[in-house]
Amino acid sequence: MHVTRLDLRNLRRFEDVSLRPTPGLNLITGENGAGKTSVLEALHLMAYGRSFRGRVRDGLVRAGSAALEVFVEWMERPAIAAPAVSAIGEAVPGYAGRPRKAGLRHSGQDWSGRLDGGAVAHLGDLCAALAVVSFDPGSHVLVSGGGEPRRRYLDWGLFHVEPDFLPLWRRYSRALRQRNALLKSRAGGALLDAWDAELADAGEPLTRFRQAYLDALLPHYAALLHDLAPAVGAGALHYVPGWRREEMSLADALLLNRDRDLASGHTSVGPHRADWALSFAGLPGREALSRGQAKLTALAALLAQAEHYAAQRGEWPVVALDDLASELDRRHQQRVLERLTGCRAQVLITGTECPPGLAALQAPVSVFHVEHGQIAAADP
Ligand SMILES: Nc1ncnc2c1ncn2[C@@H]1O[C@H](COP(=O)(O)OP(=O)(O)OP(=O)(O)O)[C@@H](O)[C@H]1O
């Protein structure tokens, strides 16, 4: 898929700007503080419901404004592969791609959204429509941070490639909220039994989906890691389900931990505590990765997710690379961009100037310059 239009209103320093990216490589340049990252943040917000720099209420809305607005138009490949031109040489309507559009207004507390002209009930519906994979200076948390970004990573992938996952995830989240509320009010008995059963009913298949997804990512990740950071040795990924799954069912684990959960007021076992671990044949553990290696490992994981998405859905997600030159050295910049241009993915890159790895690529690139709160197309 590729974004054809991105409008931002009252987002960080931008009052009202519009960007028309091209399907291939797009470079967004500007001085420090010009607003380059904010452009990618807007796209990320539509695709994830949050910025990669935190929540909307943490400063995304322009000072003095009540709410921000993001509007995105993109082209999506049709689900059925068919020639764009018929046997008699005429264009086949609808097969060249499906135009889609989404709008989001967010005040930090309240939001409203529209998708293809209709109102959406859940922010997740917007996020499931537009697929963006972002690599930014904070992406290393996928490797060096706590479990939450790694769970989000798995769930984002599953929202996009597994249609049965989102309803299951909603069921589990609702049951977890209800169970925690009961635990806090110290209520036990039949009601708690019922929510335990619901948690187990949703949590077991949810875990199977996550485990299968991580297994499916592994070949992509291992090949990318070998290409980007061969010194760390073969990479492996291991799912950690959030309870001792090899010994007992989730229903049994919930029952076993009930007294402890009643004392603490929250559910201590289950897929909401899941994680996945990374191991490397050439290193004792992820703690031994250098900062640069941690970034490359995170990038391998993110690109693996994009590759897997492309294999499943028949088209690439949009790839956003924030401040590429400060994240990767020239050789790695070039390697990554070669891969992405070879796959015909739409790529949006930010930088104070053209990253050396992009200049060395000699591929066609559309350049946009951000200055004084405006975005303008510039000469390549
Ligand atoms: N809520 C806000 N209201 C108004 N202006 C804001 C708000 N939040 C951030 N800004 C300003 O918007 C700009 C955001 O810049 P952004 O981080 O997108 O720039 P950048 O071009 O990526 O910078 P750098 O190269 O330094 O990373 C900064 O000038 C910042 O001071």
UniProtKB/TrEMBL annotation:
PROSITE patterns: RECF_1, RECF_2. Pfam families: AAA_23. ATP binds at residues 30-37. It is found in: Cytoplasm. The keyword DNA repair applies. Keywords: ATP-binding, Cytoplasm, DNA damage, DNA repair, DNA replication, DNA-binding, Nucleotide-binding, SOS response. Residues 5-51 form the Rad50/SbcC-type AAA domain. InterPro entries: DNA-binding_RecF, DNA-binding_RecF_CS, P-loop_NTPase, Rad50/SbcC_AAA, RecF_2. It comes from the Bacteria. Belongs to the RecF family. The RecF protein is involved in DNA metabolism; it is required for DNA replication and normal SOS inducibility. RecF binds preferentially to single-stranded, linear DNA. It also seems to bind ATP. HAMAP family: RecF. This is DNA replication and repair protein RecF.
